[in-house]
């Protein structure tokens, strides 16, 4: 790798890297990126970085994101398996997103210019510190030792993260905490043409009107008169006048949103120099309207500006890192990720709101915030339907070996004064990989600048696909490349049967042998794979075989002595529906066998509660099963 | 890493310098306090530190300990509550110990030095981290972090990097046994498996052309090599390494006195094919993995069948031994626990029930289900545990003093050992210390040591030990008189305090580890007055999922309107989504549950007008007896809100919409039995089931519901 640094340009140091080398070893790759300047952001330089990234997002065509989590799955079957449908993979991703934490969030606004990527990478260090002392954003989170250890090996600074990480609140948390954070909200009420006022309304309006009038007159009087301190004090007490900063104000208690509405209407009609503020009540809603008296039109405007600044400051304090998410969302730029299901379940649960209970709702809710999500692992599949590479460095080197698609990475960044550890390369790898894929697939989104709100039609087909069969992108336990082989075939969920209770230490081969002699359906072709040490899946080739086998199991193996024997030894079987239910109910036992047992036990109560849901949900989609990956 | 320590020590020195200055003017007796870091132990110096610690613990009179964890409670409602029964408190402690990790373990042996008439303390600060050192089966090593706890540790400059990178890992006894057992099974199975594999390997047909070609080539290569060997043996020419390109991949070496071929640079698939070829075509060659990590593979030539079997066994034994060594090495920090346990020394902690539970779950095995079993079990490892918090509250001289402040460790230390704590504060309150304590770290020794690093496990352990020494002295234990005290724990003045630990400091409940029961004299130690009326668990109903805006007061009103003004003695918020309601009588609990059931079934105007309807609004309100609370607490799940928690695990009790009557009947019966094991009599039961039966048959008119339930108090009071 050739690395050229122009040291003379102190302020905007552009590092240009030409990438025409071969990657023989995956681990070298990592090493090679050591010196790409990625802006590391913590609490101390967050405000400054926020301003910069705002401009960069605005000026770029795409935004790549990449998350560093504290764990992924705690049992083998909790990871996304080839037998998972979109829906079950969502349940799995949801479970992980709810338990683990994001410690680094890398964001890279970038543009493609011919074979050049112009990137502005940032790496934000996050920690869910309870900055506002309201028990948010996160009471606790899980960590997997192996994840922490491998992060430590890469030189991750946990002290910097925990001492100085940026906190955040999700959109829902911000709403929920509004009343707990003591702040005044400038009234943003849309004044509707008021519906017919009742008598009670009229009385209320008259009463507060006279009170405000009295207060204002008294203030105007007293400003001209010189008064005894005691009198002043008493007057204040009688009028209920307070001060908001240097300006006088008056609080009007309200009992309902209707009264808030009426008060605001009245104030608007009453005078120009009054600015209403809402005082939030403890349990949500509004407790009072605070009226601030400004001295002139100029004063009123300056006061409103003050309020705006205050709000911006407040937002930064409350939302923290979420401001970056809001910027990306507001830009409506396409977001590029790798294994988007994992990353976006995390993003949704940490920064938007808790995850909905179905994939459809999730997609719906997410698309309101990020209309275009592009997944490089999905694009990879376009290259060759049978070839699939699971992690980023492997994917990049795979492309390098197969295709000639040189990409120049140009990273324009202010040099960091201190040469600390640099993290967050993945986001650059994603940008690079995306550029390569675009060039190989001949998708050249040059038209992007023209119309910001619409994705170029060439990319449209690739957007918002949450591919179910993507194993987790970053898995320190196994970094093996798993390339899809020709042993992939389409299987209907109906042709799968889950088996457990066959005793420990059984290999798939032994189990297959046992089964072959147990029942007539096994005289046809079938396959057995272990999902974890407790449970196996049988894949039938003939439609209908699974039903007849399950029937035989239900009948206790009548007329099949050896099957009967196995059932007596504890063998159990169930269909895909039970598996789906185990995922849906969140029965994340360590062993799949236990989860399936529980799902069966809960059968009755649930089938009733969810009877309205089409039970075929999982059958609709055909599964692409790679038997070798099992 | 080292720099960080120096910085830490340096900053401490700076702050202390100012303390010392002010101290010198006021006290003449104390020499300027010296500071050097306590003994920090990580992976790199663990071996040597352990060797030293063995001697120090053997000679010690007692050992004080302290732990730093990644969190305390996994959900707000899992905090210690007023309304927690003894068994629930244990369950909550168990949950905490199971979920959170220990990141620092302070051990401080104290030895009485007769010549100097003072104690010598050796504070050690171990960084530990649950790193997975040996490949174990799933579930993976996972632990919870409480955000506030990490923040707290960060406030006291805890070095997370050091902990995660350099922390000492450990295996519990249970994990070690399991690993060895598994190793044994693998070893036993391997032979039989191999025979089986061999046969199958021969049967497996090669499908791909490339594989067939490769296999053929390898067969020739290996055969060539073997023939060369045989030729050489017969006195022929020396084996010539074949073409230069393959010499990188094939290398002749000697393995256990036998000629062998080392394979380099093959992919795992290629290796598998080579293995197939070897096993299929060459009787006298053995394919051996010598090092699993580097995947170094050899093909070894053997003379005979016997030789072959001998070699296989030899390799296998070697590998097994290696794996066993690795497991032994992974025991890591547990050696410290084993040391403390085998020396049977008096263990001193401050408010240490949670610490002991952590120690058990990390170094022994899964925590037992009940406090009784836990006590019996831990007693085997630590026969003598003393809690300084108990001691301080038991002592007539110390207790009044403690009342001025709290008995938190730092306060107690400042109070009882003002001279050592000098800089900390409150020297005015202090008593004259009766026992001298010297500190020794490696070769450095000081009689006036203060590292001042609060909430660092090693220093906290040191403070605990100091407090204990002073407290003993106040209890009338004169160390000077005891020329050699073989075991402090047998002293009669201490004996009555041994093995008593606070289960919860706030409620003052004490567990006696000898019996596993709550001590009768709990109240004796209890310095806090409880502001609540006496809690009767059988009178408590648990309600959750009600409308969030409903306040405890309103809930009380609701229920009082139904069951009479005096029916509710206490409404206690578990969290914002759940309350405990204590009734005046146990029967009211089941009456309430039954009434709720009935109201939810009938959708008529009565249920809308009923005073309880306010509580039931929204249709998500659930209620259960206290026993259900126990079940919820014992679940491994921890949702932040109690209502969510109950829903997650409580699918079983979810009040179903009018479903099958049979089901409802048994369920109501169950709750009833659960709730009133003591008071339930058969007639009550009969009444309920007949009532439900009536209901299911539709004979139960709405007016009757009112009759039977509204003046429920009257019914109960008879």
Automatic annotation (TrEMBL), chain A:
Q: Which cofactor does it need?
A: a divalent metal cation
Top-level taxon: Eukaryota
Enumerate the Pfam families for this protein: CAF1
A molecular function (GO) held by this record is: RNA binding
Annotated GO biological process:
plant organ morphogenesis
The family classification in the record reads: Belongs to the CAF1 family.
The name this protein carries in UniProt is Poly(A)-specific ribonuclease PARN-like
UniProtKB/TrEMBL annotation, chain B:
GO molecular function, a single term: RNA binding
Question: Organism's domain of life?
Answer: Eukaryota
Q: Known Pfam families for this protein?
A: CAF1 (PF04857)
Q: Which cofactor does it need?
A: a divalent metal cation
Write out the similarity annotation. Belongs to the CAF1 family.
Q: What is this protein called?
A: Poly(A)-specific ribonuclease
Question: Organism source for this protein?
Answer: Actinidia chinensis var. chinensis (Chinese soft-hair kiwi)
């Amino acid at each position: 790798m050739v690395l050229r640094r122009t040291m003379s340009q102190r302020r905007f140091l552009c590092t240009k890297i030409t990438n025409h080398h071969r990657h023989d070893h995956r681990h070298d790759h990592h090493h090679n990126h050591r010196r790409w300047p990625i802006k590391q952001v913590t609490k101390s330089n967050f405000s400054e970085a926020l301003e910069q990234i705002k401009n960069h997002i605005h000026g770029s065509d795409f935004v790549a994101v990449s998350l560093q989590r504290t764990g992924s799955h705690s049992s083998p079957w909790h990871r996304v398996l080839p037998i998972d449908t979109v829906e079950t993979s969502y349940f799995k991703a949801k479970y992980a997103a709810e338990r683990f934490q994001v410690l680094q969030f890398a964001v890279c606004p970038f543009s493609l210019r011919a074979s050049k990527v112009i990137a502005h990478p940032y790496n934000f260090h996050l920690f869910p510190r309870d900055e506002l002392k309201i028990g948010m954003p996160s009471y606790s989170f899980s960590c997997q030792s192996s994840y922490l250890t491998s992060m430590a090996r890469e030189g991750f600074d946990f002290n910097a993260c925990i001492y100085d990480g940026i906190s955040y609140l999700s959109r829902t948390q911000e709403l929920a905490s509004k009343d707990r954070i003591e702040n005044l909200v400038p009234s943003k009420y849309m004044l509707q043409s008021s519906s017919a006022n009742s008598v009670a309304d009229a009385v209320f309006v008259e009463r507060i009107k006279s009170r405000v009038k009295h207060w204002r007159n008294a203030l105007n009087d007293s400003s001209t008169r010189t008064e005894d301190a005691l009198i002043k004090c008493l007057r204040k007490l009688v009028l209920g006048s307070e001060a908001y900063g240097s300006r006088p104000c008056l609080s009007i208690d309200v009992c309902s949103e209707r009264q808030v509405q009426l008060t605001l209407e009245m104030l608007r009609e009453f005078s120009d120099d009054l600015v209403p503020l809402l005082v939030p009540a403890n349990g949500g809603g509004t407790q009072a309207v605070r009226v601030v008296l400004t001295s002139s039109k100029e004063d009123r405007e300056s006061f409103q500006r003050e309020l705006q600044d205050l709000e911006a400051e407040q937002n930064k304090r409350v939302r923290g890192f979420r401001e970056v998410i809001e910027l990306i969302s507001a830009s409506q730029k396409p977001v590029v990720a790798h294994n988007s299901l994992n990353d976006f379940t995390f993003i949704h649960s940490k920064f938007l709101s808790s995850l909905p209970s179905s994939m459809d709702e999730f997609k719906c809710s997410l698309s309101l915030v990020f209309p275009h999500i592009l997944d490089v692992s999905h694009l990879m599949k376009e290259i060759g339907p049978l070839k699939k590479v699971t992690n980023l460095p492997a994917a990049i080197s795979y492309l390098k070996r197969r295709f000639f698609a040189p990409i120049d990475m140009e990273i324009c960044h202010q040099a960091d004064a201190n040469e600390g550890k640099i993290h967050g390369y993945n986001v650059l790898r994603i940008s690079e990989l995306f550029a390569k894929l675009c060039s190989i697939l001949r998708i050249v989104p040059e038209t992007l600048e023209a119309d910001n709100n619409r994705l170029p039609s060439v990319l449209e087909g690739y957007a918002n696909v949450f591919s179910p069969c993507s194993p987790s992108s970053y898995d320190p336990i196994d970094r093996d490349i798993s390339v899809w082989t020709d042993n992939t075939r389409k299987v209907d969920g109906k042709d799968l049967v889950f088996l457990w209770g066959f005793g420990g230490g059984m290999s798939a081969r032994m189990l297959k042998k046992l089964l072959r002699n147990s029942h007539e359906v096994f005289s046809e072709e079938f396959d057995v794979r272990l999902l974890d040490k407790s449970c196996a899946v049988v894949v039938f080739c003939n439609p209908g075989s699974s039903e007849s086998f399950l029937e035989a199991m239900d009948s206790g193996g009548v007329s099949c002595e050896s099957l009967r024997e196995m059932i007596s030894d504890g063998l159990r079987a169930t269909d895909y529906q039970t598996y789906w239910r185990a995922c849906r109910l969140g029965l994340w036992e360590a062993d799949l066998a236990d989860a399936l047992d529980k799902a069966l036990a809960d059968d009755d109560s649930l089938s009733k509660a969810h009877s309205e849901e089409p039970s075929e949900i999982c059958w609709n989609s055909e599964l692409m099963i790679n038997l070798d990956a099992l | 890493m080292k720099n960080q320590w120096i910085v830490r020590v340096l900053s401490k020195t700076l702050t202390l310098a100012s303390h010392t200055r002010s101290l010198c003017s006021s006290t003449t007796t104390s020499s300027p306090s010296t500071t050097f870091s306590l003994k920090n132990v990580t992976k790199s110096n663990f071996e040597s530190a352990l060797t030293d610690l063995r001697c120090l613990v053997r000679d010690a009179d007692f050992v004080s300990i302290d732990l730093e964890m990644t969190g305390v409670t996994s959900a707000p409602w899992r905090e210690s509550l007023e309304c927690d029964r003894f068994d629930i408190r244990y369950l909550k402690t168990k949950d905490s110990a199971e979920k959170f990790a220990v990141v620092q373990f302070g051990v401080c042996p104290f030895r009485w030095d007769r010549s100097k008439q003072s104690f010598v303390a050796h504070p050690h600060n171990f960084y530990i981290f649950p790193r997975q050192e040996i490949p174990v089966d799933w579930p993976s090593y996972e632990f919870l972090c409480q955000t506030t706890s990490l923040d707290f540790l960060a406030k006291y400059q805890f070095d997370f990097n050091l902990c995660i990178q350099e922390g000492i890992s450990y295996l519990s006894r249970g994990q070690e046994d399991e690993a060895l057992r598994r190793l044994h099974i693998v070893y036993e199975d391997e032979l039989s498996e191999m025979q089986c594999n061999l046969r199958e390997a021969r049967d497996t047909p090669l499908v791909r052309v490339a594989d067939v070609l490769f296999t053929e080539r390898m067969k020739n290569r290996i055969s060539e090599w073997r023939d060369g060997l045989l030729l050489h043996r017969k006195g022929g020419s020396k084996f010539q390494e074949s073409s230069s390109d393959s010499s990188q991949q094939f290398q002749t070496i000697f393995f256990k006195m036998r000629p062998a071929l080392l394979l380099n640079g093959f992919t795992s698939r290629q290796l598998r094919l080579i293995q197939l070829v070897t096993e299929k075509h060459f009787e006298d060659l053995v394919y051996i993995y010598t090092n699993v990590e580097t995947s170094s593979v050899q093909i070894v030539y053997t003379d005979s069948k016997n030789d072959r079997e001998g070699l296989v066994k030899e390799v296998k034994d070697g590998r097994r031994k290696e794996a066993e060594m690795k497991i032994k090495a992974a025991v890591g920090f547990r050696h410290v626990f084993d040391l403390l346990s085998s020396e049977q020394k008096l263990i001193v902690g401050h408010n240490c029930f949670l610490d002991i539970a952590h120690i058990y779950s990390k170094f022994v095995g899964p925590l037992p289900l009940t406090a009784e079993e836990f006590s019996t079990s831990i007693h085997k490892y630590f026969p003598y545990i003393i809690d300084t918090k108990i001691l301080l509250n038991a002592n007539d001289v110390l207790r009044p003093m403690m009342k001025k402040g709290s008995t938190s460790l730092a306060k107690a230390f400042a109070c009882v050992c003002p001279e050592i704590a000098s800089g900390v504060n409150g020297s005015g309150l202090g008593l004259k210390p009766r026992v001298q304590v010297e500190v020794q770290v490696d070769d450095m020794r000081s009689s006036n040591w203060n590292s001042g690093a609060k909430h660092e496990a090693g220093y906290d352990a040191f403070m605990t030990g100091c407090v204990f020494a002073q407290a003993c002295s106040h209890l009338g234990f004169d160390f000077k008189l005891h020329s050699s005290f073989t075991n402090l724990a047998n002293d009669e003045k201490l004996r009555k305090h041994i093995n008593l630990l606070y289960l919860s400091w706030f409620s003052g409940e004490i567990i006696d580890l000898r019996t596993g029961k709550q001590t009768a004299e709990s109240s004796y130690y209890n310095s806090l007055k409880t502001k609540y009326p006496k809690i009767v668990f059988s009178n408590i109903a648990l309600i959750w999922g009600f409308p969030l805006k409903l306040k405890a007061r309103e809930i009380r009103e609701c229920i009082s309107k139904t069951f009479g003004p005096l029916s509710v003695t206490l409404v206690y918020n578990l969290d914002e989504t759940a309350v405990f309601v204590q009734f005046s009588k146990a029967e009211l609990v089941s009456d309430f549950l039954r009434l709720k059931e009935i109201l939810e079934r009938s959708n008529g105007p009565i249920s809308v007008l009923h005073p309880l309807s306010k509580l039931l609004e929204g249709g998500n309100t659930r209620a259960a007896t206290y026993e259900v609370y126990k079940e919820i607490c014992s679940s491994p799940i921890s949702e932040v809100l109690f209502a969510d928690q109950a829903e997650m695990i409580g699918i079983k009790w979810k009040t179903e919409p009018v479903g099958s009557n049979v089901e409802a009947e048994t369920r109501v019966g169950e709750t009833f039995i659960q709730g009133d094991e003591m008071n339930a009599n058969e007639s009550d039961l009969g009444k309920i089931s007949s009532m439900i039966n009536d209901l299911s048959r539709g004979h139960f008119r709405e007016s009757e519901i009112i009759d039977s339930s509204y003046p429920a108090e009257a019914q109960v009071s008879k």
